[in-house]
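We modelled the chain as a single entity of 364 amino acids. Its sequence is:
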Amino acid sequence: MFINEIKIENFRNIGFMGLFPDKGINVIYGENGQGKTNILEGIWLFTGCKSFRTSKDTELVNFESENAKISIEFETELRNNTASVFIDKKRQASLNGVLLTSPRELIGKYYSVVFSPVHLSLIKDGPLNRRKFIDTAISQIDETYAKKLAYYNHLVNQKNALLKNAAVDSSLIDTFDVWDEKIAESGALVIKSRIDYLNMLENYASDIYSGISDKKEEMKISYAGSFRFENEDTACIKENFLKNLQKNRSNDLYLKSTTCGPHRDDIEIFVKDISARKFGSQGQQRSASLALKFGEAEIIKEIRGEDPVILLDDVMSELDLTRQNYILNKIKNKQVFITCCEKETVSRLCAGKVYRIENGNAVE
């Protein structure tokens, strides 16, 4: 998959910009605050997901305008496509001239993987970012997953409201068996999807990590659930989840919150058989983060048959020269967009295109 042309109008600080990117590496450089990340953010919106920087669509429109529009021409193995995202009070999208009922209908039509500074902390930070990473990644290859996750979260929120109200109305406790059955059934589907994805991800990410570390270290991934289950069968997961919900009921009533389930689970990363989060060096943690994101791209290729567009936002200065060289010159058969501030980074690029951004304009 390649983007052949990008047009951006009234998006963030960009009045109008048109780019014809290279099918390989594209470096976008300039000082902070000039609009580099805005380009990547606009490209990301074609995944059908929200911005990776804000949840408010209104923040995406130029202060001096009432709406914004981004259009791309992109090429897949099957056909050439045109797509547009129009942003007013909310986002609208069209594909090949047809207005879509929701931007989420772009999921499965265009693929991208974004890697930003927050992902450099993917290993060492708390579990929330790791859950968000895996949930976003699965959503790009499984259109049903986002609905499964949303339904599960809805059930947990409803039960949490009952847990809070049970202190003044004890009759609500009698309804918990019904809620726990629904939560266990729904949550087991979420957990099963995550485990299946991580099994695929480990195969790719471990190979990529080996390449980054010059085959000196091995990386492993495991699902760290908030309760134990004997095997990865959905029925087994549901059965054990339900037992733990019942076991934890008194504690949940005290804390007024559901204390086990996929909303509390984590992903554990190991390097040389030790926890990268607890004991890994900064270099190991960053290498593992890179491996996870590039592994995500390889899974999209396996499942969808298309290489996703890679978006690397302002991470180069945080990486040593070996890792920078890997990104600039070792990634093959993928279109990559890289933002950076340092002109020295640009000088190490062997092939591709370079854009300098100043005040929302591409000046060279």
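As a brief sanity check on the tokenised model: The first helix runs from residue 36 to 44. The CA atoms of residues 24 and 332 lie 8 Å apart.
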